[in-house]
Structure formats: C-alpha cells, structure tokens
TrEMBL record:
Stored SMART domains: HTH_XRE
Pfam families: HTH_31, MLTR_LBD
Residue span of region Disordered: 1-37
Record InterPro entries: Cro/C1-type_HTH, Lambda_DNA-bd_dom_sf, MLTR_LBD
Source organism (scientific name): Vogesella aquatica
PROSITE patterns: HTH_CROC1 (PS50943)
Stated name of the protein: Helix-turn-helix transcriptional regulator
Record domain HTH cro/C1-type: where: 34-88
Amino acid sequence: MSKPSQPSPLGDFIRSHRERLQPEQAGLPNGSRRRAKGLRREEVAALCGISPTWLTWIEQGRTQSVSAATLAALASTLQLSRAETDYLFNLAGQKNPQHSSAAANPEAEQMLAAATAHISRPAYVLDALWQVPAWNAEAGALFTGWLDQPGSKNLLQFMFCHPLAAQLVDDWPTRARRMVAEFRADTSALQLEAATTLIAGLREASATFDELWRQQDVLGREGGERVFNHAHQGRLSYRQLTLRLAHAPALKLVMLL
C-alpha cells in the first residue's frame, strides 16, 4: 500500500537524474515538441520494465519498498556511476548487490602486493574468500611453516586445519571464534559456489569450525591487539589494521603494526 506523499531523498535523486539525461543518451528520439527536461517518467518506466504509476510513487515518496531489481534497472537506465548507484541503494536502505561480487581483480591484487613490499611490519592481502594471494617478507617470517610452504593459502584453513595455528596464535579459542563470526559477516552477501564449497570443506575437516559455524555468530572485522607465540622470535604483539580498496572492496590489506 502507498503512503501519503512526503519529502523523499530517494525520489528527488531519481527525478534529478531522470531530468538531466537526454533522450539521445538513452537511445530515444528527441522530438521537436518535447517540453519536459530530460526523460519523461513514462520513458524511464518503459526502459526499466516497471509501470509509470510505480515510478511516480517512488519519486513522490509514496512507497518505502523498492526492490533491488528495480533499483538496479533504474541505475542502468539513468546511467549512474558506481558511486551514484551505491548512493541510490543507500537511499533505499539496501546494499548494492554488485558489492557481493567476488570476481578476481588481478590489477588490484598486484597493486596491493606491491604495497606490502613497502611495509616494514607483517602485511598480507585477503580476497573475498580469505585466500592470501600476496604477503611481504615480514609476514612470511611470522607465519613460517605456512606461508613459506607450497599449496593453497587460505586464512581459515590455516586457522582450523594447520597444526601450527594453535601454537602460533595466542588465545587460539577466542581468536578462532571471532574469525568464524567475522567470516560469516564478510561473506554474507556472496552468491558463490566457491564460498559454499569452502565452508563445507572446513566443516568436514574441523569439528571446531563446524561447531562455531552452527552458532550463527556475526561480528564486524575489527582491529585490536594480535599476539603470537613464535617458535624463534618469542612472544610478539601487534595492532591489526585492515584497509579495503574503494574500487575493489572484496580485497583487504591486513597490516600488523
């Protein structure tokens, strides 16, 4: 049901971009009798596959329920940039589903890999599934016995399946519990078969991971103290800082400072 018309930041944003988009930009003829600025509601509605009435309600703030599919169609029709599309979804109280994409970004990975070489403390890169595609020499020295060995490098698989983890990571039970909750939050929007496969493999390989995964805990990834009991360097304490790239949010640069 529609609600009484009220000021609508979402509607104002859509209308503003509708009025600034020229018909020829949208592949429509620009008739000599056209008086409206930009595109008409009927034209945008037709291009989006929705009714003109529904678009009118959205612009007038008479509805607060706009589907992600409709928002994506509006973003495409209005030719919004990525930042503008994110803003559109935010105004509608939703997350841009494009952010759930975990597609490989080799250029961004290479840039982060190069950045780690200039950091004087342990630093490594995590992708959407917490694979470690790059790390610096300091991280290699900290995780000796894992990062310097052949094979796949996944942080969760290290934590729950590698014999070194429980010795190296101080207060392993607390860190393990938090990592599972952080991973659940980090991958909640992913629609990837690889994520399902990774989780299923971990649940089968580690009874502890299976138990923690069934608890359904969710936590945001935070910084804070990270303590390690290194076989050769003794007890090491760091402050963790995690940075994300604006144009590749699935990638994270983790620094232990």
